[in-house]
Amino acid sequence: MKPEAKSPVAGWHADHVYFRRLLHLLHKELDVFHGGERPNYELMLDIVSYLREYSDQVHHPREDAAFARLAQKAPELALPLERLKQEHRVIANAGEALKALLAEILDDAVIPRADVEMAAATYLVYYDSHIATEEADVIAHAARVLGPEDWAAVQAAVPSVRDPLFGDKPEERFRSLRRQIALET
């Protein structure tokens, strides 16, 4: 499903496209929850688990490395890039909180609806806004300013791992999520 990116910038953007699809699915399930029905908690947990594992452990650390290089070459962007790095931490914390609530629900715990709604809304709003800011304000600058040696350093900053969902062979635990994504497109 995920073609090999021809450039680091194309790969960065492609990840955002996939993450937005997942956030859209999560939002749809949250709408079901808001309507008083039972959402697909398993799907919700799969989405958050993937984003915690891949995005927070691979994608965001690479972005942080790119931000550091970009801030050196475009100092006027240093403050906005620091804010984006801080948002990575907020997104990770919000994702972990939501993941824990979903796991508790699947273990038959009774969780107040307001707690789930607040955790999910925080996660969705921060994540969506974060991607929009990077797409609008950062990626084009990085494409213009960073050279091959910068991108090599960014790539080397985080070990390469196979994408467990959008790679050529999704992991077994994410196959149903990948099928759901295919149905949505």
Question: Could you explain the architecture of this structure?
Answer:
The protein is an all-alpha fold and 185 residues long. Helices cover 77% and strands 0% of the residues. α1 runs antiparallel to α2, α1 packs antiparallel against α4 and α2 packs across α5.
Topology record:
Blueprint: H1 8-34, H2 41-73, H3 78-106, H4 113-145, H5 148-157, H6 175-184
Record keyword descriptors for this entry:
single chain; 185 residues; mainly alpha; 0% strand
In short:
With 185 residues, the chain is mainly alpha-helical. The chain contains six helices and no strands. The longest helix has 33 residues, at 41-73.
Q: What is the CA–CA distance across the termini?
A: 12 Å
Order of helices and strands: HHHHHH
Give the number of helices: 6
- Report the helical percentage: over 70%
Structural class: mainly alpha
Average residue pLDDT? 93
- Shape by Cα distribution: globular
Unreliable stretches covering 5 or more consecutive residues:
none
- Rg is 17 Å
Find the count of extended strands (DSSP E, 2+ residues): 0
Main sheet record? none
Question: What percent of residues are in strands?
Answer: under 5%
